[in-house]
Amino acid sequence: MTANPIRDFLIVEEDQSADHDAQVDAILDAVRAHLGMEIAFAARFEGEQRRFTHIRTELPVPQRPGDCEPVEQSYCHHILEGRLPELIHDAQDIPFAHELAITKALPVGCHISVPLKLKDGSLYGSFCCLSREADHSLTQRDVNTVKAFADLASDQIELAMGKRREREAAVARIEAAIAAGQPAIVYQPIHRLADGGPAGVEALARFPDRDERPPCDWFNEAAALGVGLELELAAVRAALLGVAYLPGDIYCAINVAPATILSGALTAILADAPPGRIVLEVTEHAEVESYASLREALAPLRSRVRVAVDDVGAGYAGLRHILDLEPDILKLDMGLTRDVHVDPARRALIAAMVDFAGGICCRIVAEGVESAEEAAVLRELGVDYAQGWHYSKPMPPVAAQQYLLSGGGAYAPAPPAAAAPARRFA
Fold first, then answer.
1. Contact 51/67 with Cβ under 8 angstroms?
2. Which uninterrupted H or E stretch holds 127?
3. 137-182: pLDDT as tens digits
């Protein structure tokens, strides 16, 4: 089948991120091929400057997307001002065009330029195509074709502008939240299964719109927008402030993504943290690109903090994720612990994890424990710690302090269990 550039540009695959720049490039390629011209480009007017936003050519031209030049040096500006026609068969035949530096430098032969206008009628820039050789076969129909392509390009440009505005608004919203002291931190107690007493807490982020939007959405959006590190560091700082309210024998687990560890920013933030009382829970659900780099970044922190692998059993933390990070703690996902008292398969898998953890000197924390029956079975299986609504919902710092000082609030300690093997996590 013969290639059809007009059809081809219309079926360029568009992913979920809506790559509008690629669409504009495809439109420029199509018009260039349709007219048999050597160069097609789109440009944006910025006061007295013209910025090239897209350039499509196989020639070694000096301009690149992003480059600027004075508008007075461009054909497009003078066409809009009425000094040059939209259709130029041969620039050498027009005295005014002949005097422009670009005419001789390229050189310019045939040239078509039409305005790029947005839906509100405002002028965005210009849409041009040209060749070094003259072409007297071009007609007004070709100009109309270029205008049709320019309209398509304008649509894509306006969509891209809308996406940028949305992104800027989202970044501003996140930055404003950080400036306002967000996220707030609540602490969910973690209990020893052997005697029921409290051993630690997990710091959990909360935002004012939590009822409509879960906190993980904030962090996922921030990461996608390139401000994930800033939001995570704000959460870490806020969590550390609350540690001052916790009894001295209680540890605090703080969620961090591998990117935050790799940034090196935690070294300074954790420099004054009480040794042994901070646990970093590695939360990244995506594949870790370099375990060697992550281990290297964790190394200077290990004298003050311990490391936990989160979501074990949820399908995120694979065996290599556990082995290569050499964690002190494995946190069983609530999907694995839920209804363990009535599910033989879950009991068998947890028993295997307990045996595995003992072999690598780890402790195990079961998340999402909601009933005394679940807690009892987990204790029998040799799980060390548990957290969940069976013990307590997450609480603000002062409430958590009162709960922990009371020995676990109204929670009734379970009967002592057999001593567990000696491990790094006390």
1. yes
2. strand 123-130
3. 999 999 999 999 999 999 999 999 999 999 999 999 999 999 999 9
Evaluate whether 375 touches 192 at the Cβ level (below 8 Å): no
Cα–Cα distance between 397 and 161 in angstroms, integer? 43
DSSP 342: G
Which CATH code of 3.40.50.300, 3.40.50.2300, 3.30.450.40, 3.30.1130.10 fits the domain covering 5-167? 3.30.450.40
Task: Return the half-sphere exposure (C-beta side, CA atoms, 13 A cut-off) of residue 280.
Answer: 33
What are the extents of the domains in the chain? Answer: 5-167, 181-405
Q: What is the distance between the alpha carbons of residues 384 and 365, in angstroms, rounded to a whole number?
A: 6
Q: Are 346 and 340 in contact (CB under 8 A)?
A: yes
Alpha helices in 58-211 (DSSP H): 75-80, 95-98, 101-105, 140-179
Residue of 234, 213, 231 lying closest to 222 (CA atoms): 231
**Residue 286 C-beta-side C-alpha neighbours within 13 Å:** 9
Q: Do the strands 385-386 and 363-366 form a parallel or antiparallel pair, or are they unpaired? A: parallel
Residue range 181-405 forms a domain whose CATH class is: alpha beta
For the segment 127-138, what is each residue's pLDDT rounded down to a tens digit?
Answer: 999 999 999 999
> What's the first-to-final CA gap in the chain, in angstroms?
71
Q: What is the pTM of this model?
A: 0.77
